[in-house]
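Ticket closed. Logging final result for Dipeptidase.
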Amino acid sequence: MKVIDTHCDALLKLQAVRFEKRKLDFRDAPEIETNLKRLEAGNVGVQFFAIFVNPEKVTTTDQWKHAQDQAAIFHEEIVEKNEKVKFIQNWKDIHRLAPDEIGAVLTLEGAEAIGNDLEKLQTLYQMGVKSFGLTWNPANLCADGAEEPRAAGLTKLGREVVQLNNANEVLTDVSHLSVNAFWDVMKLADYPIASHSNVRAICDHPRNLYDDQLKALIDKKAPIHFALYPVFLKKGAQAATVADLCEHIDHVCALGGEKNIGFGSDFDGISCHIDNIPDASGYAYLLNELQKHYSEEQVRGFAYQNVLNLLPS
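Final structure:
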Protein backbone atom coordinates (compact mmCIF):
# COMPACT_ATOMS: atom_id res chain seq x y z
CA MET A 1 0.00 0.00 0.00
CA LYS A 2 1.49 3.33 -1.10
CA VAL A 3 1.63 6.49 1.02
CA ILE A 4 1.32 10.14 0.04
CA ASP A 5 2.98 12.38 2.65
CA THR A 6 2.18 16.08 2.31
CA HIS A 7 4.91 17.64 4.44
CA CYS A 8 8.57 17.20 5.32
CA ASP A 9 11.52 19.54 5.95
CA ALA A 10 14.32 17.62 4.25
CA LEU A 11 15.27 20.63 2.11
CA LEU A 12 16.04 22.70 5.19
CA LYS A 13 18.32 19.98 6.55
CA LEU A 14 20.05 19.48 3.21
CA GLN A 15 20.65 23.23 3.01
CA ALA A 16 21.78 23.62 6.63
CA VAL A 17 24.74 21.26 6.31
CA ARG A 18 26.04 23.25 3.35
CA PHE A 19 26.63 26.20 5.66
CA GLU A 20 28.89 23.83 7.61
CA LYS A 21 30.77 23.06 4.36
CA ARG A 22 29.29 19.55 4.33
CA LYS A 23 27.02 17.79 1.91
CA LEU A 24 24.54 15.02 2.55
CA ASP A 25 23.57 12.33 0.06
CA PHE A 26 19.78 12.31 -0.16
CA ARG A 27 19.87 8.63 -1.10
CA ASP A 28 20.89 7.35 2.33
CA ALA A 29 22.11 10.12 4.67
CA PRO A 30 21.13 8.99 8.20
CA GLU A 31 20.41 12.60 9.18
CA ILE A 32 17.54 12.78 6.63
CA GLU A 33 14.39 11.10 7.92
CA THR A 34 12.89 11.18 4.42
CA ASN A 35 15.94 10.01 2.49
CA LEU A 36 15.35 7.83 -0.56
CA LYS A 37 16.19 4.59 1.21
CA ARG A 38 13.65 5.32 3.95
CA LEU A 39 10.96 6.49 1.53
CA GLU A 40 11.34 3.21 -0.33
CA ALA A 41 11.25 1.18 2.90
CA GLY A 42 8.04 2.96 3.94
CA ASN A 43 6.51 2.51 0.48
CA VAL A 44 6.04 6.26 0.12
CA GLY A 45 4.73 6.89 -3.39
CA VAL A 46 4.64 10.69 -3.23
CA GLN A 47 6.53 12.99 -0.87
CA PHE A 48 5.90 16.72 -0.60
CA PHE A 49 9.13 18.67 0.13
CA ALA A 50 8.74 22.10 1.72
CA ILE A 51 10.86 25.14 1.08
CA PHE A 52 11.09 26.71 4.55
CA VAL A 53 13.06 29.84 5.42
CA ASN A 54 12.99 30.42 9.17
CA PRO A 55 12.08 34.12 9.61
CA GLU A 56 13.55 34.06 13.12
CA LYS A 57 16.99 33.02 11.84
CA VAL A 58 17.32 34.41 8.30
CA THR A 59 17.38 38.15 7.66
CA THR A 60 14.81 39.67 5.32
CA THR A 61 17.43 40.47 2.71
CA ASP A 62 18.59 36.84 2.55
CA GLN A 63 15.23 35.06 2.59
CA TRP A 64 14.65 34.94 -1.16
CA LYS A 65 18.14 33.56 -1.78
CA HIS A 66 17.59 30.86 0.86
CA ALA A 67 14.33 29.86 -0.82
CA GLN A 68 15.98 29.69 -4.23
CA ASP A 69 18.80 27.58 -2.78
CA GLN A 70 16.32 25.07 -1.35
CA ALA A 71 14.48 24.87 -4.68
CA ALA A 72 17.81 24.19 -6.38
CA ILE A 73 18.60 21.44 -3.85
CA PHE A 74 15.21 19.88 -4.56
CA HIS A 75 15.88 19.75 -8.30
CA GLU A 76 19.60 18.93 -8.22
CA GLU A 77 19.93 16.57 -5.25
CA ILE A 78 16.52 14.92 -4.98
CA VAL A 79 15.14 14.75 -8.51
CA GLU A 80 18.01 14.88 -10.99
CA LYS A 81 20.37 12.50 -9.14
CA ASN A 82 17.76 9.82 -8.48
CA GLU A 83 16.21 8.08 -11.45
CA LYS A 84 13.33 6.68 -9.40
CA VAL A 85 12.30 10.13 -8.12
CA LYS A 86 10.00 11.97 -10.50
CA PHE A 87 9.23 15.70 -10.31
CA ILE A 88 5.49 16.32 -10.10
CA GLN A 89 4.97 19.33 -12.37
CA ASN A 90 1.23 18.79 -12.80
CA TRP A 91 -1.16 16.94 -10.50
CA LYS A 92 -1.89 14.41 -13.23
CA ASP A 93 1.78 13.36 -13.11
CA ILE A 94 1.03 11.48 -9.88
CA HIS A 95 -1.23 9.11 -11.79
CA ARG A 96 1.56 8.43 -14.32
CA LEU A 97 4.09 7.18 -11.76
CA ALA A 98 5.39 3.66 -12.24
CA PRO A 99 5.06 1.29 -9.26
CA ASP A 100 8.75 1.69 -8.34
CA GLU A 101 8.84 5.49 -8.74
CA ILE A 102 8.40 8.18 -6.08
CA GLY A 103 6.75 11.46 -6.93
CA ALA A 104 8.36 14.60 -5.51
CA VAL A 105 6.18 17.68 -4.98
CA LEU A 106 7.75 21.07 -4.20
CA THR A 107 5.89 23.26 -1.67
CA LEU A 108 6.44 26.48 0.27
CA GLU A 109 5.95 27.00 4.01
CA GLY A 110 5.76 30.73 4.74
CA ALA A 111 5.61 33.63 2.28
CA GLU A 112 8.47 35.60 3.86
CA ALA A 113 10.71 34.78 0.90
CA ILE A 114 8.58 36.67 -1.63
CA GLY A 115 8.10 39.80 0.51
CA ASN A 116 5.52 41.83 -1.41
CA ASP A 117 6.86 40.85 -4.83
CA LEU A 118 4.32 38.80 -6.77
CA GLU A 119 6.86 38.25 -9.55
CA LYS A 120 8.76 36.08 -7.06
CA LEU A 121 5.55 34.15 -6.49
CA GLN A 122 5.33 33.52 -10.23
CA THR A 123 8.96 32.36 -10.16
CA LEU A 124 8.08 29.86 -7.44
CA TYR A 125 5.26 28.52 -9.60
CA GLN A 126 7.74 28.16 -12.46
CA MET A 127 10.13 26.31 -10.13
CA GLY A 128 7.31 23.85 -9.52
CA VAL A 129 5.73 24.91 -6.21
CA LYS A 130 2.33 23.18 -6.04
CA SER A 131 1.28 23.99 -2.46
CA PHE A 132 1.72 27.34 -0.73
CA GLY A 133 1.53 27.94 3.03
CA LEU A 134 1.13 31.67 3.62
CA THR A 135 2.79 31.66 7.04
CA TRP A 136 4.91 29.78 9.45
CA ASN A 137 4.11 30.65 13.08
CA PRO A 138 4.73 34.44 13.17
CA ALA A 139 3.10 37.14 11.05
CA ASN A 140 4.34 38.25 7.65
CA LEU A 141 3.11 40.52 4.86
CA CYS A 142 0.43 38.00 3.82
CA ALA A 143 -1.15 36.94 7.10
CA ASP A 144 -0.74 36.20 10.79
CA GLY A 145 0.56 32.80 11.81
CA ALA A 146 -0.68 30.39 14.45
CA GLU A 147 1.53 31.83 17.20
CA GLU A 148 1.20 35.55 16.35
CA PRO A 149 -0.44 37.23 19.41
CA ARG A 150 -2.33 39.72 17.22
CA ALA A 151 -4.12 36.78 15.52
CA ALA A 152 -5.29 38.84 12.54
CA GLY A 153 -6.40 37.48 9.17
CA LEU A 154 -5.19 37.89 5.59
CA THR A 155 -3.80 41.13 4.27
CA LYS A 156 -4.65 42.48 0.82
CA LEU A 157 -1.44 40.83 -0.42
CA GLY A 158 -2.43 37.54 1.18
CA ARG A 159 -5.76 37.62 -0.63
CA GLU A 160 -3.98 38.22 -3.93
CA VAL A 161 -1.70 35.24 -3.27
CA VAL A 162 -4.66 32.93 -2.60
CA GLN A 163 -6.35 34.09 -5.81
CA LEU A 164 -3.15 33.45 -7.79
CA ASN A 165 -2.90 30.00 -6.20
CA ASN A 166 -6.43 29.32 -7.43
CA ALA A 167 -5.58 30.43 -10.95
CA ASN A 168 -2.53 28.14 -11.03
CA GLU A 169 -4.19 25.10 -9.37
CA VAL A 170 -1.84 25.49 -6.42
CA LEU A 171 -3.01 24.33 -2.99
CA THR A 172 -3.31 26.94 -0.24
CA ASP A 173 -2.08 25.38 3.00
CA VAL A 174 -3.84 26.44 6.23
CA SER A 175 -1.65 24.46 8.64
CA HIS A 176 0.26 27.39 10.17
CA LEU A 177 -2.37 30.13 9.95
CA SER A 178 -4.03 32.04 12.75
CA VAL A 179 -7.71 31.21 13.23
CA ASN A 180 -8.82 34.44 11.55
CA ALA A 181 -6.46 33.91 8.62
CA PHE A 182 -7.79 30.36 8.29
CA TRP A 183 -11.35 31.65 7.86
CA ASP A 184 -10.22 34.27 5.35
CA VAL A 185 -8.51 31.56 3.31
CA MET A 186 -11.56 29.30 3.42
CA LYS A 187 -13.67 32.08 1.90
CA LEU A 188 -11.26 32.49 -1.02
CA ALA A 189 -9.34 29.27 -1.69
CA ASP A 190 -10.46 26.85 -4.36
CA TYR A 191 -7.88 24.29 -3.20
CA PRO A 192 -7.33 24.47 0.58
CA ILE A 193 -5.34 21.82 2.42
CA ALA A 194 -4.22 21.24 6.01
CA SER A 195 -0.93 19.55 5.19
CA HIS A 196 0.24 18.79 8.72
CA SER A 197 -2.22 19.67 11.50
CA ASN A 198 -4.08 17.71 14.14
CA VAL A 199 -7.20 17.97 16.31
CA ARG A 200 -7.33 20.77 18.86
CA ALA A 201 -10.20 19.21 20.82
CA ILE A 202 -7.80 16.38 21.71
CA CYS A 203 -4.54 18.33 21.96
CA ASP A 204 -4.88 22.05 22.65
CA HIS A 205 -1.96 23.36 20.62
CA PRO A 206 -2.05 26.52 18.47
CA ARG A 207 -0.98 24.46 15.45
CA ASN A 208 -4.03 22.21 15.70
CA LEU A 209 -7.51 22.85 14.31
CA TYR A 210 -10.79 23.44 16.11
CA ASP A 211 -13.83 21.34 15.20
CA ASP A 212 -15.50 24.15 13.24
CA GLN A 213 -12.31 24.51 11.18
CA LEU A 214 -12.20 20.77 10.54
CA LYS A 215 -15.86 20.79 9.52
CA ALA A 216 -15.20 23.65 7.09
CA LEU A 217 -12.38 21.68 5.47
CA ILE A 218 -14.60 18.61 5.27
CA ASP A 219 -17.42 20.62 3.68
CA LYS A 220 -14.98 22.01 1.10
CA LYS A 221 -13.60 18.55 0.33
CA ALA A 222 -10.12 19.58 1.47
CA PRO A 223 -7.40 17.18 2.63
CA ILE A 224 -6.80 17.03 6.40
CA HIS A 225 -3.38 15.50 6.95
CA PHE A 226 -2.06 14.61 10.38
CA ALA A 227 1.47 15.35 11.55
CA LEU A 228 3.21 12.36 13.17
CA TYR A 229 4.46 14.57 15.99
CA PRO A 230 3.75 13.73 19.65
CA VAL A 231 3.59 17.42 20.57
CA PHE A 232 0.52 17.78 18.32
CA LEU A 233 -1.02 14.50 19.50
CA LYS A 234 -0.92 14.77 23.30
CA LYS A 235 -0.75 17.97 25.33
CA GLY A 236 2.79 18.55 26.56
CA ALA A 237 3.99 15.13 25.38
CA GLN A 238 7.35 14.18 23.93
CA ALA A 239 6.23 10.62 23.18
CA ALA A 240 3.12 9.07 21.64
CA THR A 241 1.78 5.84 20.17
CA VAL A 242 -0.30 4.91 17.15
CA ALA A 243 -3.26 4.67 19.55
CA ASP A 244 -2.86 8.39 20.25
CA LEU A 245 -2.93 9.10 16.52
CA CYS A 246 -6.06 6.97 16.20
CA GLU A 247 -7.86 9.31 18.61
CA HIS A 248 -7.36 12.13 16.12
CA ILE A 249 -8.42 9.92 13.22
CA ASP A 250 -11.56 8.80 15.07
CA HIS A 251 -12.46 12.38 15.95
CA VAL A 252 -12.30 13.57 12.34
CA CYS A 253 -14.21 10.49 11.20
CA ALA A 254 -16.94 11.34 13.73
CA LEU A 255 -17.15 14.81 12.19
CA GLY A 256 -17.75 13.20 8.79
CA GLY A 257 -14.19 13.53 7.51
CA GLU A 258 -13.13 9.92 6.90
CA LYS A 259 -12.57 10.69 3.20
CA ASN A 260 -10.43 13.77 3.98
CA ILE A 261 -7.83 12.12 6.22
CA GLY A 262 -4.20 11.62 5.27
CA PHE A 263 -0.68 12.12 6.62
CA GLY A 264 1.81 14.98 6.51
CA SER A 265 4.49 13.58 8.78
CA ASP A 266 6.59 16.72 9.38
CA PHE A 267 9.64 14.44 9.30
CA ASP A 268 12.94 16.32 9.35
CA GLY A 269 11.19 19.17 11.15
CA ILE A 270 10.23 17.48 14.41
CA SER A 271 12.20 16.77 17.57
CA CYS A 272 10.42 13.59 18.75
CA HIS A 273 8.46 10.77 17.15
CA ILE A 274 5.61 8.32 17.55
CA ASP A 275 6.89 5.01 18.94
CA ASN A 276 8.34 2.81 16.17
CA ILE A 277 7.93 5.56 13.55
CA PRO A 278 11.30 7.37 13.66
CA ASP A 279 11.35 8.27 9.97
CA ALA A 280 9.63 7.57 6.64
CA SER A 281 10.43 3.85 6.85
CA GLY A 282 8.02 3.72 9.80
CA TYR A 283 5.02 4.03 7.49
CA ALA A 284 5.16 0.24 7.03
CA TYR A 285 4.64 -0.18 10.77
CA LEU A 286 1.98 2.55 10.91
CA LEU A 287 -0.20 1.08 8.17
CA ASN A 288 0.07 -2.38 9.68
CA GLU A 289 -1.07 -1.04 13.07
CA LEU A 290 -3.90 0.98 11.53
CA GLN A 291 -5.28 -2.14 9.87
CA LYS A 292 -5.88 -3.54 13.37
CA HIS A 293 -8.35 -0.70 13.98
CA TYR A 294 -9.75 0.16 10.54
CA SER A 295 -10.73 -1.68 7.38
CA GLU A 296 -8.25 -2.10 4.56
CA GLU A 297 -10.32 0.31 2.46
CA GLN A 298 -10.21 2.96 5.18
CA VAL A 299 -6.45 2.61 5.64
CA ARG A 300 -5.92 2.77 1.88
CA GLY A 301 -7.87 6.03 1.94
CA PHE A 302 -5.78 7.47 4.78
CA ALA A 303 -2.55 6.35 3.12
CA TYR A 304 -3.08 7.76 -0.37
CA GLN A 305 -6.50 7.39 -1.99
CA ASN A 306 -8.29 10.21 -0.15
CA VAL A 307 -5.83 12.87 -1.21
CA LEU A 308 -5.75 11.53 -4.78
CA ASN A 309 -9.51 11.98 -4.88
CA LEU A 310 -9.30 15.55 -3.55
CA LEU A 311 -6.36 17.03 -5.49
CA PRO A 312 -7.10 19.30 -8.46
CA SER A 313 -7.88 17.17 -11.51
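The chain is about 35% helix and 10% strand. No further action required.
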